[in-house]
Design a protein that fits this description.
Layout: E1 7-8, E2 21-27, E3 41-45, E4 50-53, H1 59-65, E5 73-77, H2 89-98, E6 105-109, H3 113-123, H4 125-131, E7 140-144, E8 158-163, E9 173-179, E10 182-186, H5 194-200, E11 205-213, H6 215-219, H7 222-229, H8 234-244, E12 248-257, H9 261-271, E13 275-278, E14 283-287, E15 291-295
Parallel strand pairs: 4-5, 5-6, 6-7, 10-11, 11-12, 12-13
Antiparallel strand pairs: 1-15, 2-3, 2-14, 3-4, 8-9, 9-10, 14-15
Helix pairs in contact: 8-9
Bound molecules: zinc ion (2 copies).
The site of one zinc ion has 4 residues, from loops.
Length: 302
C-alpha cells in the first residue's frame, strides 16, 4: 500500500508538470546498518532525467520498492569514497544488467573513481562471463569531476560539484542541483564549510548532514570527538542556517549519540526560525512553484 502524506510548504499557482522536478530520499542513514535508514542515496528526476546522488547500502532495494527498474538512471554522482556512499554501486550495476539495462551508466566522482569502477567490473568478471557470453552488457563509464565540464541548461537538471570539508578526506564534495531557477544544495559529509555556505545562500532546499551527541557520551569517547570534528555539530548547523537561510532545510546522514531527532530540532528551532525537518527513507519531494513533501512508504503497509 502506498501512503502519501502531503505537506505544501509554499502555495502559489499550479505549475506545469514539465516545470516540476522530484527528489526522493532512497537512504538517509550512515555507515551503521539500520533497516529504517539505508545508506545515503538521493534520486533526482524530471520527465526526461533520472540521476542518483551517492549510492549507499540498499539503494537497489529502495529503487525496487518504488518501482524503478534503473533503465532511465543514466548518471550517478559520488560525493566521496567513504564506503557508506558507494557500497551500493556494484549491486546497482549487476542488477541493472539482470534487468537488461541497455545503456551504460555514467558515474562521476572524486579523483580515483575510474579505478574504483574498473575494480568493481573486474571483481565480478566471473559473474559476467557466466551470464553474458556475448559480452553484451551495460557498463559503468566513470570519470572524475575534474574531467567533467559543468554546463547550465535550464531545461535539464544539472549537477555541479564543489569541495566541502570532511576532515581527513581530502577529496570530498557537495553538490548544487539546478533546474528551472530552483537550487538544491547537498552538503555531502562535511564539517561547517565555507563552500557549502556560499553555495547554499538562499537555496530552495539545503540537504545537510548533522552530528549530535549527549555531553556525557562525547566527553568519555575520544574516537567520537574525532568523528565529530569531521561532521557538522548542532552549533555549526545553526551557524550554517543563519548564514544561508534556505527556504527548507532537510537534515540527513544524522550521526546521533544519546540524543534523538526531536532533541536536535528543539535546539535548532530555539535559535533559527526557518523550516527544518529530518529526512526519512522514501520521503519524496516535488519542487516547482511550490514544494510538496510526501512519503512513498511502502514498507509493511505503514
Ligand atoms: Zn557518510
Ligand atoms: Zn564520510
Amino acid at each position: 500500500m502506498i501512503k502519501y502524506i502531503f505537506i505544501a510548504f509554499f502555495v502559489s499557482s499550479v505549475a506545469k508538470a514539465s516545470d516540476v522536478f522530484n527528489m526522493t530520499f532512497l537512504g538517509t542513514g550512515t555507515p551503521r546498518p539500520n533497516i529504517e535508514k539505508l545508506g545515503p542515496s538521493l534520486l533526482i528526476q524530471n520527465q526526461n532525467q533520472q540521476i542518483l546522488i551517492d549510492i549507499g547500502r540498499g539503494t537497489s532495494l529502495r529503487l525496487s520498492q518504488i518501482g524503478n527498474d534503473y533503465s532511465n538512471i543514466k548518471e550517478i554522482y559520488i560525493s566521496h569514497f567513504h564506503f557508506d556512499h558507494i557500497i551500493g554501486l556494484a549491486d546497482f550495476w549487476l542488477t541493472s544488467n539482470l534487468w537488461q539495462k541497455k545503456l551504460d551508466t555514467f558515474v562521476y566522482g572524486p579523483t580515483g573513481v575510474n579505478a574504483f569502477c574498473n575494480n568493481i567490473m573486474e571483481t565480478y568478471r566471473m559473474d559476467l562471463k557466466y551470464r553474458y557470453k556475448n559480452k553484451k552488457y551495460s557498463k559503468l563509464i566513470c570519470s572524475s569531476f575534474k574531467n567533467k565540464k559543468s554546463t547550465y541548461d535550464d531545461e535539464k537538471i544539472s549537477i555541479h560539484s564543489f569541495t566541502n570539508d570532511h576532515g581527513h578526506i581530502d577529496n570530498s564534495y557537495g553538490f548544487k542541483i539546478k533546474f528551472k531557477g530552483k537550487n538544491i544544495v547537498y552538503s555531502g559529509d562535511t564539517t561547517i564549510s565555507e563552500n557549502v555556505i556560499n553555495n547554499a545562500k538562499d537555496a530552495d532546499i539545503l540537504i545537510h548532514e548533522i552530528f549530535a551527541s549527549s555531553k556525557k557520551i562525547i566527553k568519555n569517547n575520544k574516537k567520537l570527538r574525532e568523528v565529530a570534528s569531521t561532521h557538522t555539530t548542532i552549533d555549526q548547523m545553526i551557524s550554517v542556517l543563519k548564514q544561508t537561510n534556505p527556504k527548507l532545510t532537510i537534515l540527513t546522514h544524522a550521526l546521533l549519540f544519546g540524543v534523538n531527532e526531536n532533541d536536535v530540532l528543539k535546539v535548532i528551532k530555539e535559535n533559527y526560525n526557518g523550516n527544518v525537518i529530518f529526512a526519512k527513507d522514501l520521503m519524496s519531494i516535488d519542487i516547482g512553484k511550490e514544494i510538496n513533501i510526501f512519503n512513498l512508504d511502502v514498507m509493511n503497509g505503514k
